[in-house]
Write the structure tokens for this entry.
Amino acid sequence: MSENLSFNLSASSANSGANGDGIQHEKVIIIGSGPAGLTAALYTARAKLDPLVIAGHELGGQVALTHEIENYPGFPEGLSGQELVELMKSQAERFGARIKLFSAVTEVNFRDGAPFRITTDDGAEYLADSVIVTTGATPRHLNVPGEKEFTGQGVSYCGTCDGFFFRDKEIVVVGGGDSALEEGLFLTRFASKIDVVHRRDALRAGQTLQDRAFANEKMNFIWDTVVEEISGDGSVEGVRLRNVKTGAVEDYATEGVFIFIGHDPNSDIFDGQLERDEFGYVITDKEMHTNIEGVFAAGEIQDRIYRQVATSVGQGTAAAMSCERWLAEQE
Ligand code: NAP
């Protein structure tokens, strides 16, 4: 994993300063502000590396949209994703991490080695002696007619955000994984009926969630079926369903479509620079090194299997410790 070692020591001694071009120079830039990024910020801040987190447009990423987190150790009563993100942020800031909000990275140059050049959508440019990539993943789309048109008008990818608008309404949830059932169960607080449309006749979700979903009288399952089209007039009024076994097509009335069919990694800006797998996830070794010396990755950008707050926190820790070690070796 040694693509380049052209580390510029005079540059590495700078920290949070401007070089001759007026470009801000950092020891560590963390791209992304989910659990992996905020944990990496905490660890690198405690190591006196004065990290800068470029947070993206939604602090906390996906976890901030999660209604309730019950499986993150240390919080026996559970807490909201928003609360957890705020706690992680303030813990990192307490040790000096700087978190730049409402700013997203649009371009990176990892090819030419450290210091790495990073550009953001507010026109800022940075040089970084090391980078920790924690850009996470984005909910996958069905890519059917009507989906884009009715997003925000009945089509949603976030029960926590939009459930409130579906009080006493009948809605469709698409997917058969943990997200579909977890979000579907949350949506039973609002909706009068939930039809879970799944393309197979067996769920992918874990048994506990399955048991809770089957026991909930508001949840109904439509098996072996896909949504082919979403229709309406200003807002969603129905979906066209197709049974994948019989081929039968049915127009089905509904006022909302919640889509939970997995995620895609937010790795496009690293295309051609960071090695990625067939699904677009950044490839790292166990120490969170990418193929570029001085660039590390953690969290859902490199983990398509576990995708938990707890695992992202662990990976963020490992990336920060490897980054710290790597910077020390360059001096
Ligand atoms: P997932 O496990 O990948 O499940 C995606 C579901 O959507 C699958 O049932 C899949 O069907 C279906 N699907 C995929 N593409 C589709 C398409 N084009 N049309 C129709 N259906 C489609 O994704 P997830 O539920 O978002 O979960 C991701 C990861 O996060 C998992 O590891 C999960 O365990 C974890 N997670 C955990 C929790 C928790 O522990 N409480 C909560 C949420 C998520 P098939 O089954 O046929 O492939």
User: Anything to note?
Assistant: The first strand starts at residue 17 and ends at 18. The CA atoms of residues 150 and 235 lie 6 Å apart. Helices lie at 9-12, 35-46, 81-94, 159-162, 178-187, 207-215, 309-330.
